[in-house]
Amino acid sequence: MKQLRNLQSWLLVFFLLLLLPAAAQEKKEAEETPDEDARTDLRIEVVGGKKEVPVDNASVYLRFPRDSKSVRSKLLELNLKTNAQGVTRYEIAPRGKVLIQVIAPGWKTFGRWYTLEKEKETIRIQLEEPPRWY
Fold first, then answer.
1. Which of 85, 66, 87 is closest to 75 using CA atoms?
2. Are both 25 and 45 inside the same structural domain?
3. pTM above 0.85?
4. 80-93 confidence digits (pLDDT tens)
């Protein structure tokens, strides 16, 4: 009888030790994933040249990485235009990584990955003049 209790105790300890790393891994993954409902009020300012003149009517492309597990996330790409002051806004940008690409006539194209972490963020993009072709 005493041997049976010892065996049961050892089996219980063994199974608990097997389940402990799995529970710790799940907790770690939950901490790493950002909150799906967290949004950022994103403001993008586009200026060009050394004088930093506002670039109006520039196409600003936002691309969010596709999460294969989340069917809920339908928004993958977005196209915005800048106003006369060179500013465009997107108030419900999901937090995390975003690729911002800017295309404007007469300016060199721009593209870079950014990480959105705050509630309100302003990203200033300075376009360069295109190289001269002779």
1. 66
2. no
3. no
4. 999 999 999 999 89
